[in-house]
Write a structure and sequence with these properties.
The complex is a heterodimer of chains A (425) and B (435). Chain A is mostly helical and 425 residues long. Chain A has 13 helices and seven strands. Chain A has a domain of 226 residues: MetI-like fold, CATH 1.10.3720.10. In chain A, the strands form three sheets. In chain A, strands 1-2-7 form a three-stranded antiparallel beta sheet. Chain A has a two-stranded antiparallel ribbon with strand order 3-4. Chain B is mainly alpha-helical. Chain B contains 16 helices and two strands. The two termini of chain B are 59 Å apart. Classes of the chains: A mainly alpha (425), B mainly alpha (435).
């Protein structure tokens, strides 16, 4: 016997908003929305009141007014008569520069150390363990300050390079000068520059050269084309291998494709190496890597390198031993086992945390403040704010820059994760 | 064939022979671990050379260190008279003269026992959480520790922390009474609203009244006097303790089905994580006054603690979200099939397991946070680096770098390394339990 119950009454009672799970979620969300909007309204009205009380307005017009301060390191043209917006852009480029340099060197250090730490050589693995633990457990700020102090306190002064009885000498065939004011390295100048810049002789009697941005763009373009051509050659080799089973030897073709076009272009542009030399009390010409850049770059790469080393080690160890044994059982050579079996699986584990380390490095580059490197925090978030008194606008713009960068990188990472995820239930 | 005479069969066992000398003891170890291939041999020699270079420079510097000098000039004179002229020597005199500043900042020296006692109270409070084998009664210390530590560090009247703690009591009582006599819904509203009303309206007058009746107080120490490692530990520990509940709520919100709540949590977490801590610290220093009602301004140290708490909460939320995601779906479904509602299933089934998985991650977040407390030097607080700058600014120790960096680095290394080992220990233990 089944008891027939009345079907639920149609219609809506107010109490359902609380007791019926179908409607309760709406109630909760509406309450939350009201609270959040209220909180933001409260913060906003406070801000408006405070700004009124201080006689300030909310205006980004200051970005167009003259900055009036100099920036000692700039990748694009800038002088103190240009706008605050331009100064911010110089700072952004400096941030990106140190972040890119740091990511590249941290990756190299991290992979080397991570692999060496797994080495059977006791001394090497212990040495790498000491490095990793030392850098992971001491704040980055201390490393930046320490390396900055090493550069300014322990390196020779430029005047010690001068005269017949110089106590110091330039290294690497008189081309690199390491001083307490930074490191000077040779640069490449172009005597037949296409950039239209006026060519200047770096030293009396030498060929006049221009530093030309357009020349570099041309060289990069040629390099990109060469890389594409190398890809084509590889694909052709793959096809032949699949059809016949024999892989044609292509390495000399690839090297030629990579080297010859760039070499020809550089020769046509009249590329000349310009070495730094001592003039007066300081070095001139060449490229000057400032102490601030070196301290920040070295500290960031060593610090992040230690974290990346752990990620690489964990990634390699995560591939179970059965995989390499199975590859050996199939008769695959050890070198190809690494490439075809272990690395693809290890990379799946390695790459997501690796990218978040790159993200950390980029964010940590804001510690440039410790050594006075002119990154976006020093220009937009530092001097500009102090000069114009626009804390709110300046901090908002700076926050937006870092946020956009992070979201861009993590968006790319999510895309990668989705494309390499193992299919689960 | 079978009748072929056997010419010789040994009838007794041969004695065991010692293995070749190259296959035993240290020689074998060296061969296998250091010189197994030419490449390995080169690596070994290179590494040993690096170690030798570092030790031959740093070793004498540390061993010859001067501990009993009162200024850098005095120290250099001692080195000039006693040193051998070939090796430099460290001036550890700065450590022996100023270690108390590096550790306690400008905290009054006769009150050093208070931060030390606060640390002991904290450690006793955290012990039952970290090591489950300890007696459960210690959880009483855990509950009292935040208020006791606050009182010990800042001082002042004891009634202020007690009246604040009473607010939690109000919440618990309200929950019980309302749930029994009115309804579950009223209990939830009561738990949130009543303590708030108490804190806003009653807590201040109550503390003031009790203090005027029974004045029980110790000397008040302003936050400006906090400094050195004490400041790092205060900021780090209070941020982690307060960010844990906040992080759990954020993680649950991010995994919730409610669209608005989920969106808010995602935006909060991503915005906080996308911007460097130093920008948030400058926000706390420069902008917080804009967002608060006109005329309200409060202590910079407190502002920093709040900012670092929010920052840590976003990171912890992500760690806990990882723990929640790592739980098998069956656990959630099992809780549902038992008829538990959302909060019951979270509290009884999901969170205990998810938190256990995330403890190593939480400890790692805390290590990062503790290291990041050094950034407060940029907004003018005297963390160890700020103190070291102040020491370098004095006439006695002008121009001293390495000794201070070494001391600060070693202190951070010891604390972070031991926390890291604890996290490894936990990971191993958890792995065993999951097998």
């Amino acid at each position: 016997m089944s008891t027939l119950t009345d079907p639920p009454k149609p219609g809506f009672r107010l109490s359902q908003l609380i007791y019926d799970t179908r409607y309760r979620s709406i109630t909760i969300q509406v309450i939350a929305l009201v609270l959040i909007v209220g909180a933001f309204w409260w913060l906003g009205s406070n801000t408006v009141n405070n700004l009124n009380a201080l006689g300030k307005d909310f205006d980004f017009g200051f970005l167009n007014s003259a900055a009036g301060y100099d920036i000692n390191q700039r990748l694009i043209e800038y002088d103190n008569q240009m706008s605050h917006g331009r100064a911010a852009l110089v700072g952004i480029l400096n941030t990106l520069l140190v972040a890119l340099m740091g990511c590249a060197s941290a990756l190299i250090i991290g992979v080397f150390v991570g692999v060496l730490r797994l080495s059977k050589n006791w001394v090497v693995s212990k040495l790498m363990a000491v490095y990793v633990e030392a850098f992971r457990n001491v704040p980055l700020l201390i490393w930046i300050l320490l390396i900055g102090a090493v550069m300014t306190e322990s390196m020779p002064q430029p005047r010690e390079f001068r005269g017949e009885d110089a106590t110091q000498s330039m290294i690497l065939g008189d081309s690199v000068a390491v001083t307490n004011r930074g490191i000077w390295i040779p640069r490449i100048g172009f005597s037949n520059s296409i950039s239209g810049e006026e060519a200047v002789a770096p030293i009396d009697g030498a060929t006049p050269v221009a530093s030309g941005g357009a020349d570099w763009l041309l060289i990069l373009g040629v390099l990109a084309l060469s890389l594409i051509a190398m890809r084509v050659v590889r694909n052709r080799a793959d096809k032949i291998q699949q059809a016949t089973g024999d892989r044609p030897t292509t390495w000399y073709q690839q090297v030629a494709i990579l080297v010859i076009p760039v070499g020809v272009v550089m020769f046509a542009l009249g590329a000349t190496i310009v070495a730094p030399y001592l003039k007066g009390f300081n070095f001139t010409e060449g490229t000057h890597l400032r102490n601030s850049l070196i301290a920040l770059w070295v500290a960031l790469s060593l610090y992040t390198g230690a974290f990346i080393a752990e990620i690489v080690r964990a990634g390699i160890m995560a591939v179970s031993k059965g995989q390499s044994e199975a590859a050996a059982a199939l008769g695959i050579q050890p070198s190809r086992t690494m490439k075809l079996v272990i690395l693809p699986q290890a990379l799946r584990v390695i790459i997501p945390p690796l990218i978040s380390q790159f993200l950390n490095l980029t964010k940590n580059s804001s510690l440039a403040i410790a050594v006075g490197y002119m990154d976006v925090r020093a220009t937009l978030g530092g001097i500009t704010i102090n000069q114009t008194g626009r804390e709110l606008e300046g901090m908002l713009l700076m926050g937006a820059f870092y946020l956009a960068l992070s979201l861009l990188i993590s968006g790319g990472m999510n895309y990668y994760n989705h494309s390499t995820q193992l299919a689960e239930r | 064939m079978s009748d072929t005479p056997v010419t010789y069969v040994r009838t007794q066992m041969l004695d065991q022979q010692a293995p070749p000398t190259s296959e035993v003891g240290p020689v074998r170890w060296v061969r296998e671990n250091l010189f197994s291939s030419p490449m390995n041999a080169i690596l070994t020699i290179l590494s040993l050379y690096v170690v030798y270079i570092v030790l031959s420079h740093v070793g004498p510097w540390i061993v010859n260190g001067i501990w009993n000098a009162n200024s850098l000039t005095e120290c250099r004179e001692i080195i000039a008279t006693t040193g051998d002229g070939h090796h430099s020597a460290a001036c550890f005199g700065v450590i022996s003269a100023r270690w108390h500043q590096l550790v306690f900042g400008y905290y009054p020296s006769e009150l050093y026992w208070r931060p030390v006692l606060a640390l002991v109270v904290f450690l006793v409070g955290i012990a039952p959480v970290m090591f489950p084998s300890l007696p459960r009664k210690l959880y009483f210390v855990t509950a009292a520790a935040p208020f006791l530590c606050f009182w010990l560090l800042w001082g002042g009247s004891i009634w202020l922390p007690i009246s604040i703690a009473l607010g939690f009591g109000v919440g618990i009582v309200a929950n019980k009474v309302l749930a029994e006599h009115v309804s579950a819904l009223a209990a939830i509203v009561g738990v949130i609203v009543l303590p708030l009303i108490y804190w806003i309206l009653l807590a201040g007058p109550l503390a003031g009244g009790l203090a005027s009746v029974i004045p029980l107080e110790i000397e008040f120490v302003p936050s400006r006097s906090f400094g050195g490692f004490m400041l790092s530990i205060v900021i780090g520990l209070s941020a982690i303790v307060m960010s844990l509940p906040l992080g759990i709520l954020l993680a649950l919100a991010r995994r919730s089905d409610l669209f608005i709540i989920k969106t808010c949590a995602v935006v909060f977490i991503e915005v906080i994580r996308g911007v460097p801590l130093i920008v948030w610290l400058f926000t706390a220093q420069l902008l917080l006054n804009y967002f608060l009602p006109p005329g309200s301004s409060f202590d910079l140290t407190l502002r920093v603690i709040i900012m670092v708490t929010l920052f840590a909460a976003a990171y912890i939320a992500e760690v806990i979200r990882g723990g929640l995601a790592a739980l098998p779906k069956g656990q959630y479904e099992g809780a549902d099939s038992l008829g538990l509602n959302y909060w019951q299933s979270m509290q009884l089934i999901v969170l205990p397991q998810a938190l256990k998985i995330s403890i190593p991650g939480i400890v790692n977040t805390f290590i990062g946070l503790f290291k990041d407390t050094t950034l407060v030097v940029f907004i003018g607080l005297f963390d160890p680096i700020g103190i070291s700058n102040a020491i370098r600014a004095t006439t006695e120790w002008n121009g001293i770098y390495w000794e201070l960096f070494l001391f600060i680095g070693i202190m951070f290394f010891i604390s972070c390394f031991s926390m890291g080992r604890y996290s490894l220990y936990l990971e191993k233990k958890l792995q065993r339990e999951h097998r």
